[in-house]
């Protein structure tokens, strides 16, 4: 075996530290589509240049906001799913904060959520499904149900005669 150099160790460490994040941001409604595409491409290139990968980018369209944000009632929503280090996501957040067309953003670490979902699914799969199993037959030692008692009226008539 040959000894690893520091660059190989750094690359391996970076791959181990990369996590999945969802970054959603809202762009001003008065911006043109070409400018919006250019802005999104700029954020994607920031991720790739920083050593991360962009898994997907979705333009969710124009939606009404729940409350006024910087005097806007609606905005264009964009959802980016990236795989990157925490420091790179911090840099993307900084760029989103100083970018004038972006009126709101949020980033969420998703790998913990995926682990939680997988754990719940495994737990559910391990349980016995009662509806899939046939009904258990009654034990043979159980006595048959007792016959209903005769009505008292019949018994008193017989006793009175």
Explain the layout of strands and helices:
Elements (H helix, E strand, L loop, with lengths): L5 H12 L1 E9 L5 H17 L3 E17 L2 E13 L1 H13 L3 E8 L1 H16 L25 H9 L1
Provide a descriptive summary of the structure in words.
- With 161 residues, the chain is α+β, with helices and mostly antiparallel strands.
- It has a domain at 19-111: Alpha-Beta Plaits (2-Layer Sandwich), CATH 3.30.70.60.
- Helices cover 42% and strands 29% of the residues.
- The chain has a 4-stranded antiparallel beta sheet with strand order 2-3-1-4.
- Strand 2 and strand 3 form a beta hairpin.
- The radius of gyration is 33 Å and the shape is elongated.
- The mean pLDDT is 80.
Highlighted features:
161 residues; Alpha-Beta Plaits; elongated; 42% helix; alpha+beta; 4-stranded antiparallel beta sheet; single chain
Name the beta content range: 25-35%
Helix tally?
5
Strand order of the largest sheet: 2-3-1-4
Per the CATH scheme, the topology name of the domain at 19-111 is Alpha-Beta Plaits
CATH architecture of the domain at 19-111: 2-Layer Sandwich
What CATH first level of the domain at 19-111 would be assigned?
Answer: Alpha Beta
Unreliable spans are: none
